[in-house]
Structures are given as structure tokens and as C-alpha cells.
Amino acid sequence: MVSDFEEFDSLCFNVKLHGTSKSLWLISIATSCRSVWLARNEMVFERKVLSMDTLIFHSKMRALLWVRFQSCYMGWHCPPHGWLNFNISWMTIGEAMGYGGVLRDEEGNVRALFSGPCDAIDVDSSELRAIITTLDVIIEIRWRGTGLIIFEIGSLVAYNWLLNKHKRPWLQQATFVDMERRLAYEGEVAFSKAE
């Protein structure tokens, strides 16, 4: 327990961890603070109250995305000029599932970032929902026709579904129709399997 900001600051930064462990600790603290701030804003401005489980889930999702962003960026190769690269990630905690993504330009600058819970029933479906959300983000920021968009996804199954229409499961047909409609709007899109 801490009584003021100075004690909180001391607790966060004076922890006896080093290197990667300390970085992960600080990311966890930062994402937790961000999640609490956003939940507070929703409560004040939208009269929406989040449960503690939801707040913890959002904090873990944000931490996963920030860690994924850092690790991808360190080993990441810039796309050609005018192209965008979108790294998509998913996560499960207990029975809850979520996804997120980081959109970067050819200089590695973050152009968009999103995360949230997902009602998908499995990892592969979650990645497909993340692609649709990503396309919605790209449409919203009006990135159309200026260059190729590369989606890096982690699921080999979803990646194979994207490349081979005849391998797509019947239960996912509505999802692929939604995706194809958005892809037609965007133009040049490529998919790659993330390491």
C-alpha cells in the first residue's frame, strides 16, 4: 500500500530488478495506470463501470501489446517507402480473449494502436477479428491507395486461410465476407507470417 505519489514512484522505480525484468515491470505499471485512467474517464464521462476482472484484462492486453511492440520493433525491418506494416497479436487469459495491433510506417513510427476484448471462440478466429478491426482503423485514418499494407499475423492456421480460400472453414464464411468487403475498399494488401 502507498499513501501518496512519491511512495508510488519509489515503489515503481526502486524495485530490485534489472534489464528485461525491470522493463517488463515498468511496462506493467504503465499499462495498469493507463487502464485505470481510461476506466476512470469512462466512469466519469460515460457512466460506464468496469469490473475489476475487465480492468485487469485490459491492463494485461495493453502490456502484451507494448511488449510485443518493443520486441517487434527491435527485430523489425522497415517496409518500402509509402508502405505500412501492421503487427497483429492475440491473447487469452482464462476464458477471456483479446487482440490488438500496432500500425507502423516505413520509418517505424507508430501510426495507430488498438487493443480490446474479443468474443472469438479460438485463437485463429481472434486473429481474423483483429484483421477486420485493423482494416476498420486503416479506413478510419483514411489510408487508401497510397501504398501497400502488410499484415503480420502469428496464427499459421489463419494465415493459410487468408492465402487459400478453399481451406476456409464454413463457420468462418461471414467473417471472410466482412473482411473481403473491407479489403476491396483498401486496395493493395499483403499478409505475412510473423516470426
From TrEMBL:
<dbReference type="InterPro" id="IPR052929">
    <property type="entry name" value="RNase_H-like_EbsB-rel"/>
</dbReference>
<protein>
    <recommendedName>
        <fullName>RNase H type-1 domain-containing protein</fullName>
    </recommendedName>
</protein>
